Automatic annotation (TrEMBL):
Domain D-isomer specific 2-hydroxyacid dehydrogenase catalytic, residue spans: 59-334
Signal peptide range: none
The protein's name in its UniProt record: Hydroxyacid dehydrogenase
Domain of life: Bacteria
PANTHER family: 2-HYDROXYACID DEHYDROGENASE YGL185C-RELATED, 2-HYDROXYACID DEHYDROGENASE-RELATED
InterPro entries to which the protein is assigned, alphabetical: D-isomer_2-hydroxyacid_DH, D-isomer_2_OHA_DH_cat_dom, D-isomer_DH_CS, D-isomer_DH_NAD-bd, NAD(P)-bd_dom_sf
Keywords from the named record: NAD, Oxidoreductase
Domain D-isomer specific 2-hydroxyacid dehydrogenase NAD-binding: start-end pairs: 127-303
Similarity-based family: Belongs to the D-isomer specific 2-hydroxyacid dehydrogenase family.
PROSITE patterns: D_2_HYDROXYACID_DH_3
Length: 343
């Protein structure tokens, strides 16, 4: 078969590879039409299993895979069935679940919509920083229980967001955006990231500190580090125990970055509070004490794109496909050498 390189004037063959429910949520009729204007799409349904006879037939002709949550691993066996495959455009964030070493060894170009998915995660984080600083959740609960308003003025200096200190763990895509969203607020921002120097942190709008100082000084610590072998359990007991009384830990990264047992003990004892969009495992067992802990807000991994935010993922992916088909290259490429810094 003749290859159809980007910029050749020939329409590349594309296929969707993700869970069917994801495809229907992320790609609406307008998105499908836009894809068809750029490529020759394989007929639906989407591919969610690369081992079936139909999948093998589709893969034999594809130049481009548009992937999403639920895409099977693109391992050596799958790639043998896709001899023309030259690019993968992912409509979500991390590509770790499906882009394997075999893809990098073959030189397949990879793009991700991580930049688009970072937007709602950062917005969620900002909202939780401000809400917990103002003690909105606790006040709403007390108001509901009392059915009456207590003294409206709260002189307690631990309540409020004026000159609060927020510590950002990792200058990832999301961490950087959170720092940027905090700029208009009267909040002091600390940052720990071993790959950022003091000048780089200052340019972002934060002050670089070591990890123990970040936890010791912050009123709120927001975790944005990717889960890697060296970051598993990074937020351990010593760091959690060093947090200020009534400080808040916000985790929108991965549950396993935090020592959940140590965190559970701290919030049950009332020493600190937590907002957890991720846990280890997801979902927690029904009897886990975090479910009923008043010092914890648990949300079901919803900080990322939801509802109308999913359109942002599709739009970025389509823009990347447009660039690739015209030979301009990806604006949001995923590089193998950068995997250690990505979620």
């Amino acid at each position: 078969m003749t290859e159809q390189p980007p910029g050749s004037g020939l329409r590349p063959r594309a296929a969707l590879a993700m869970h069917p429910d994801v495809a229907s949520a992320v790609l609406d009729a307008e998105s499908h039409a836009a894809l068809a204007a750029l490529c020759d799409p394989a007929p639906l349904p989407v591919l969610d299993d690369f081992t079936t006879p139909r999948a093998r037939t589709v893969l034999a002709d594809v130049d481009l895979l548009v992937t999403g949550w639920g895409c099977p691993p693109l391992d050596a066996e799958a790639l043998r069935a896709a001899p023309r495959l030259r690019a993968v455009v992912h409509t979500a964030g991390s590509v770790r679940g499906h882009v394997t070493d075999a893809c990098w060894e073959r030189g397949i170009e990879v793009s991700s919509a991580a930049a688009a998915n970072a937007v709602p995660v950062a917005e969620y984080t900002l909202a939780m920083i401000l809400l917990t600083g103002k003690r909105v959740l606790e006040s709403a609960r007390d108001y509901r229980d009392a059915r009456a308003r207590h003294a409206w003025l709260r002189p307690d200096r631990s309540t409020g967001n004026h000159r609060r200190t927020v510590g950002i763990l990792s200058a990832s895509l999301i961490g950087r955006r959170v720092i940027d969203l905090l700029r208009p607020h009267d909040i002091d921002v600390l940052l720990h990231d071993p790959y950022v120097d003091e000048e780089g942190a200052a340019e972002l709008g934060a002050r670089l500190v070591e990890l123990p100082e970040l936890f010791r000084r912050s009123d709120t610590v927001s975790v944005h580090t990717p889960l890697l072998p060296e970051t598993r359990g990074l937020v351990g007991r010593a760091l959690i125990d060093s947090m200020r009384p009534d400080a808040v830990l916000v985790n929108t990264a991965r549950g396993a970055v935090v020592d959940q047992e140590a965190l559970t003990e701290a919030v049950l004892a009332g020493r600190i509070r937590a907002v957890l969009d991720v846990t280890e495992p997801e979902v927690l067992p029904p009897g886990h004490p975090l479910w009923n802990c008043e010092n914890v807000l648990l949300t079901p991994h919803l900080a990322g794109s939801q509802g109308n935010e999913l359109r942002r993922l599709a739009d970025l992916a389509l823009a990347e496909i447009r660039r690739w088909t015209t030979g301009d290259g990806f604006l949001h490429p995923v590089r193998r050498e950068r995997l250690a810094f990505l979620a």
